[in-house]
Hints:
By secondary structure, the chain is of the alpha/beta class.
Amino acid sequence: MPAPACPEGSPGIRVLLVDDSQPFLRVAADFLGRHPELVLVGAVCGGEDALIQIQSLQPQVVLIGLDTLGLAGLKMISRLRITLPEVAIIALTMLSDDTARRAAFFAGADGVVTKAHLSADLLPVIRRVV
């Protein structure tokens, strides 16, 4: 079993979830809530709201759904990378092709996770980028 990402007694890794799909937000929030080393500070439906929330919630990691946000998600990643370079950004996508991954990395994402493999891949990627 891997070592926890946070030392004993620390508040955990602060995560903000951004996606336009309410059902996905619920599923992902439930998944994140089952991991004590993570603290879900917010789940935002829509890109512009997220930019406001990031300032006040101060997450360490932002998970951005690209499928429903499309180009807006890539632009958000680029804006976050410039304005808040200390925040880790992980793109979430339904697409498993290299084009989506390359676009997310080119925009400034620190990691990319396919939504279909969320339960297996997300925690290791969060630990790596933090």
